[in-house]
Amino acid sequence: MTVTTDQEHRARPAGGSGSRKLLDTVLKVRELAIGAVLVVMLLATQLDNSDFLSQQGIKDLLLNATILVLVAVGQAMVVITRNVDLSVGSTLGISAFAAGDYLSGGGNPLVAVVLAVLLGAALGAVNGLLVSLGRVPALVVTLGTLYIIRGLDSVWVGSRQITASQLPSGFAGFGHDGLSVIPYLALLTAAVLVCVAYYLRAYRGGRDLYALGSNPEAARLAGVPVRRRILTAYVVCGALAGLAGALYLARFGNVDSGTGTGYELTVVSAVVVGGVAFTGGSGTVYGAALGALLLTSINSVLPSIGVSSVWVQAIDGFLLLLAIAVDRVVALRVADLLRKRAAETRSARHA
Amino acid sequence: MSLGNSTVRRVTAVTAATAVMALGIAACGGTTKNSVAKSTPTAGNTASANPNAATRKGLTIAYLPKQVNNPYFTTSDNGGKKAVEALGEKYKEVGTSSGTDTAGQVSYVNSLTQQRVSAIAVSAQDPGALCTGLNQARKSGIKVVTYDSDTNPGCRDVAISQASSVDLGRTEVQLMAQQIGDKGQIAILSAAQTATNQNTWIGYMKDELKKPQYKNVKLVKIAYGNDDAQQSFQQTQGLLQQYPNLKGIISPTTVGIKAAAQYLSGSKYKGKVKLTGLGQPNDMRSYVANGTVQAFELWDPAKLGALAGYAAIALASGQISGAPGQTFTAGDMGKYTIGANSVVVLGKPTVFNKSNIANFHF
To answer: Name one GO cellular component term (chain A) (predicted).
Structure first.
């Protein structure tokens, strides 16, 4: 009897760390695969058109991706908790206009960016409160706030628009200048990405988000402060959408009441293609960022090799299905492996 | 108990909501009655017109743009408002906040018919979808003028065209050719592949390019940015990468041209690759100032809206019936003649450049 319990004690931690390692490898492989697809695609395009990865070309690729990467990072945090934020497009739009409105009145660019981030965070907090306190499906709540924020935006902005001539030239310069081939916007985005990734990996709050997404009930029983964590995820998501709004203004120099319409779907695609499972609890923000980079790069690759842009949407959709299929297959494989291992342990115990 | 309570609360809420809705309906009813009292529409469509008839007073001209809160339509409708109110008539504007909500636009047509306005100036989201509603309106004596985007000719009395497609297509090529010295590769950045107006203009551009003086100008590619800033950016990047010797881009869409200008102004191509097309002065001001764009063109939307207003008033006063060849006076804009298919053309587009852009604010 004592022998059996002893064996049990030893087997459990070994099996646990083994499956974690397995999961880690699987996730890393998942990100590496997206990275590999991206690299192959970019190199193939470079072979076809030697101008593609010129200095200007690389700069454009990075700039094209920055805004989507930022929003996708925030969205990934929310999706990891088994929720979703569909209002990011509206939040981006209204924050961009708020920043632009402030700047066109002669404001300081830095304050304008902070303003956009704060507005985004406030809207994120509303979402977070509704989802965590109301215990209503996030899909429906944020669909509601998507329309509400867009509606408020339309009422407030009306037919006004912010054009490049109303912005200080330094701000527009910030939108396309950089340190040699690396634009400032990309540096800022990379910094945000690394910070969020570190938080999710190394902090208790970050790990709790994964716990919540894997099994909300178990997480609650284990003492995870569910409401606070969900609220945090939404506030960060909103703040990043707000920041993205400010960068949108700098990059495109033009904002009206329709800015960011339909963006939520692109963001969700990027997150899912990047390997953040929609069922929560798995994936990383690096994956989401890679997914965003992949999707925006496809949009650059096709025109550059002269393929009609009508293919873009079909290819995006195909990638999405491929990503989900891969996730499903991997999940089944992993579950299978874990079950086999458990069976082995059991039979070892019996023997 | 708690279940009972919540039911009671719910019932109360429903009652309250119904009461609010009833109030809303009552308020609407009030307005409808008022406008009926103010405007007594002429009965039936009189085929003949009396050009010397006096302008009738107390008319209500309703503007139904493709999209409210769109800067372009706000400018055009404000132009219309000025013209309509200068003649002492009543102006109103209704419309959907989305430019693709055709069902919403149809229901606005129906509600304007119920309100018995004197004339509707509409920019149609769809050439066919509004026909039933508009013909219903015309049957009850309401005059229908389309502006910016026409319906099928059978569904309106007069159409105001911003500029003839021929003029727009040809002048854009002429503007570009001037800037690149009649020599080199050019490309077009359009909106959606299915946009009818874009494709018509592009057709005339190609036709203009056949002229011998443009034998050294080569149109290498038509790209589609779908009137989206990011997509237009990436299509522009693609054009420049695919054709390193590209000399110029023509973008016959206001969204496309400002996106292309913003991209060019922040890239190494600034000033080297010329950009022209249809743009709005407010959007393009900084790019003209910083040398990214030399000249571009557009009709004046305020004049477009005003002409639609004058035509609507002339129709409602019986001065014209919409038959080709009839003429009417459009305030200080002068006399206009109705052309084939009952289309009135506003005139040649205005070219904006460094010297005159400061005079335009839309």
So the answer is: plasma membrane
